[in-house]
Amino acid sequence: MEEFFQQLTNGLAVGGIYALIALGYTMVYGVLKLINFAHGDLFTIGAFLGLTLLTSLGLTDSIGPVAGLLVLAVMVVILVGVVGFLLERIAYRPLRSSPRLSAVVSALGASIFFQNAIMLIWGARPLVYPHGLLPNVTVNVFGAELPLIRILMFVISVLLMCGLYYLTHKTRIGTAIRAAAIDQGAAKLMGIDVNRVISLVFMIGPALGGAAGVMVGLYYGQINFTMGWLYGLKAFTAAILGGIGNIPGAMLGGLLLGVVESLGAAYISIAWKDAISFLVLILILIVRPTGLLGERVADKV
Amino acid sequence: MKRFMRVLALGLVASLLLSSAALAADTIKIGLQAPLTGKYASEGLDMKNLVEILAAKVNADGGVKGKKIEIIAEDDAFDPKTAALAAQRLVTSGVVAVIGTYGSSITEAAQDIYDEEDVIQIATGSTMVRLTEKGLENFFRTCPRDDSQGAAAAQVLKDRGYKRIAILHDNSSYAKGLADETRKRLDDNSVVFFDALNPGEQDYNTILTKIKGFNPDVIFFTGYFNEAGLLLRQKKEMKWDVAMMGGDATNNLDLVKIAGNDAAKGFFFVSPPGVNDLTSPFAKEVLDTYKAKYNSLPASIWSVFAGDAFLAIVEALRQTDSTDPEVLSEYLRNKMDNYPGLTGSIAFDNKGDRAGKFYRVSEVNADGEFVMLP
């Protein structure tokens, strides 16, 4: 029982990261019907920018570790948001009226570009966040020893997701985003600046990915230029699992994927971990082709 | 005049023939087959440089029973077809033995040619298992073979008295091979866990939690330094201080960088010695000469094996006072006993594989450095 609980929390911690990245995929898909394959690399950029800012500015020394990391995270989120904005302007906007396949190819190209750019700027060897930034404190929850950082990571992921949900469902700009997602033409007629909405979506999605990148870097320590690929793939899977285009779906899909992976590895086989999670994905898609919460996607596609 | 010219020409040819015959009587030819061009040219050139330094040293000391050693180098370009041609050329040039070569498939292309012509071959970088499983009388190698690391790892685990061993690989053919070879040599009851992780991931808490459930006293991870570093780090975070061992793919200081000194401390791995680990006085002297001449050390341990092959051949020639391949082969196989070479002591087993302890254990100390244990 104790081991089960430990594995469940292991899964939730990884799932929280998947969910944060999945939100970027799902938001862009919801509005543009485009799978932004470069999203995983924006996550990597977040991790690398975080490391560079951390070591060059020394914020954790000058204003204390907690405030320092917070400021750092905000800076990375803004910077990655800007990169996302530029990505949309340069790689996607010129192709807006072209066939959807052209945009997908452009997305793949952007992904390759980012990955190689990261390698050229920061090098091909894995980089390491400084040790001892985060205290190694464990909390005893129901008999399982949980590192405090894991819990914090999970809480921050959930808070960011809730914030996003609030933004899209309770605010004016959120209403505009959802309107653009349902029908761009009609949204334009209602006086919504669809281009601005799309730019905004391309800033929020990557920003969340960047936040995930910093968290991964801070917690796991090691970052490398290819890490976005695997995380991107998993997060993309999570987005589909929850119903792509649906924000609560991405959160649910991410957490579920993390937990299925973890429990599959724990109780069936570690080597078959990914096979098990993809089997679950297939089974869910057979029963619910639109994903767990993706009811409205069917008529969109 | 015409006639005079003919006589002169004949005389010249005769004197040339005579002198080369006289020269041939004074020298013993040893062939070197190495990739002197192509993708692995740097390895091949290191091999050639090192063998030539050693040959010069032997010749300066009076050669072998008064005869000078002559090295004949042929390029195999790391290509099987070129290798077959190189082997033909070496065989016809009258060498008693051949050193080389670097790649396994390249060695395989030349192996039969040497064997048919009764020339001793000592391979230097060819680790493929089946090369010595063919029962060739004249084939030896100074490098370890692919499955010997597993044997070494199993021995270390036994020597350290571990009773509950968890073996973890990463499904790459290298790491899985090492894991399989190690498990084969361990008592079935002592391997409590055997599975693979997914390389390239960041979070191995799930796997560690699972392994912890089997309560092992050591984890043997056969994969690469990246994952090993993360495993150490996350193991430390779980406050689980089980011993952890790695294979030679963890021989990279980035491991300590990723894990942090605290978490990496006590981690140990089996690995062949690197060029910098060759600290015997003889190896030091030879490598210093090398460095003085070429401004750098050989880039990898593989070229140093060529030096060992040369030393083994010279020692066999000296001890047997013969150039008969049958006598030499018999000496190398059965009589050569821990002759001091560059990478350690040289001896061969019945199959022609390098015998004796070659793999070394290194441990991470408190300062995050790799320390090779005696």
UniProtKB/TrEMBL annotation, chain A:
Membrane-spanning intervals of the chain: 12-35, 42-60, 66-87, 107-128, 148-168, 197-220
Keywords: Amino-acid transport, Cell inner membrane, Cell membrane, Membrane, Transmembrane, Transmembrane helix, Transport
Membrane protein topology class: Multi-pass membrane protein
Subcellular location: Cell membrane
GO biological process: D-alanine transmembrane transport; L-alanine transport; L-isoleucine import across plasma membrane
InterPro entries: ABC_transp_permease, BCAA_transport_permease
GO molecular function term, any single one: L-leucine transmembrane transporter activity
Short name of any one Pfam family annotated for the protein: BPD_transp_2
Cellular component terms (Gene Ontology): plasma membrane
Entry similarity comment: Belongs to the binding-protein-dependent transport system permease family. LivHM subfamily.
PANTHER family: BRANCHED-CHAIN AMINO ACID TRANSPORT SYSTEM PERMEASE PROTEIN LIVH, HIGH-AFFINITY BRANCHED-CHAIN AMINO ACID TRANSPORT SYSTEM PERMEASE PROTEIN LIVH
Name under which the protein is recorded: ABC transporter permease
UniProtKB/TrEMBL annotation, chain B:
Any GO BP: amino acid transport
Every Leucine-binding protein domain range: 27-368
Keyword Cytoplasm: no
Signal peptide: 1-24
UniProt keywords, alphabetically: Amino-acid transport, Signal, Transport
Pfam families: Peripla_BP_6 (PF13458)
Keyword set includes Transport: yes
Gene3D superfamilies for this protein: 3.40.50.2300
Family: Belongs to the leucine-binding protein family.
PANTHER family: AMINO ACID BINDING PROTEIN, LEU/ILE/VAL-BINDING ABC TRANSPORTER SUBUNIT
Protein name stated in the entry: Amino acid ABC transporter substrate-binding protein
Lineage of the organism: Bacteria, Pseudomonadati, Thermodesulfobacteriota, Desulfovibrionia, Desulfovibrionales
